[in-house]
Amino acid sequence: MTSPPVIGASRGAPEIRFYLPSERLRPLVTSYYFLESAGPLDDFTHPEWANIRFALNGVWRFEDGGIKDAIEPSRAALFGPTDRARRFTTDGGLALGIGLTPLGWLTLIGSDASDVANLIVPLDRQLGPSGPAIHSRLLEARTDAERIAVVDAILAARPPTQSVYRELVVKVQQALLSATADQVGDLAEQLGIEQRTLHRVCTAVFGFPPVRLLRRQRFLRTLAKVRDRLDQPLGELIDSGYYDQAHFNRDFKACMGMTPLAYFRLPREALRRAAEERHRVLGAPVQGLHVDQDETGKGD
Fold first, then answer.
1. What whole-number distance in Å separates Cα of residue 33 and Cα of residue 165?
2. Closest by Cα among 235, 175, 238 to 201
3. CA–centroid distance for 158 within its chain
């Protein structure tokens, strides 16, 4: 890993920096990322796997699936997996995020992911040390590298949650990312398991039943293709799993809360920069398309 810069973004557009975790944590953590804004910022997150976020400076407000209005989460918060966009705002500040793979959720957190799907809860002692204690240690650090070292050490020391579903979770995640099945029955058959078993694993570890996960992945695949090719007809870019463009438009509104036209007219400064940097550093423009490097032999 190259030496990260000292914290301190200049005024202007938001700065987003992505880093890979230590090699042993890569099946569990998609990335560490810093979002730093010197001024007001209003943007969205895409549907994503679970995340842990630390507000290190400034006030950050997020939409929470459980209530109507945006909230200011705990300075150390656990964000459940989502199948929809989440709007966030800040007047300026610095936040550190830890993206968890489904296997990372099972290993490091271990609770039923469906209980916090689309929700935000305080990070208590899910990682061993309390959320506030970890937050204090991160504030004492001065650089990205120092903060990453703190988190890396805490995650590496976390005793893994034991589960009979561990190998199956990996296979389900690989199948979702490979896009080789678009129907629940086909996915269960491909994995060689009963549909009720697939439903139980997806709900408990991924946060949603398989039909919603398949829809989410289909949407993210299309969004990744469309994001920088707006000069081409949308109908030529959408995933083959969609019947037609109207089908994609309905999914888009369900996932993002707006039409494609409204979305692409937004500035989306953080989303644009996050997609560019995530793709440059990690190989995938959104977290939900992440593939562990050790599984592919290259980036995600």
1. 29
2. 175
3. 21
What is the arrangement of strands in the sheet containing 86-90, beginning at the earlier edge strand? 41-45, 86-90, 60-62
How far from the centroid of its chain's Cα atoms is residue 182's Cα?
21
Q: Tell whether pTM > 0.70.
A: yes
Q: What is the pLDDT of residues 30-89, one digit of tens each?
A: 999 999 999 999 999 999 999 999 999 999 999 887 666 789 999 999 999 999 999 999
174 vs 294: CA distance, rounded Å: 12
User: Is the alpha carbon torsion for 209, 126, 46, 60 positive or negative?
Assistant: positive
Which sign, positive or negative, has the C-alpha torsion 66, 254, 32, 105? Answer: positive
**How do residues 101-140 score in pLDDT, each as one tens digit?**
999 999 999 999 999 999 999 999 999 999 999 999 999 9
Of 85, 98, 49, 90, which Cα lies nearest the Cα of 73?
90
User: From CA 143, how far away is CA 181, in angstroms rounded?
Assistant: 43
Tokens 């209005």 appear where? Answer: 69
Judge whether 47 and 23 are in contact, CB under 8 Å. no
Buried b (16+ CB within 10 A) or exposed e, 53-92: bbbbeeebbbbbeeeeeeeebbbbbbbbbbbbbbebebeb
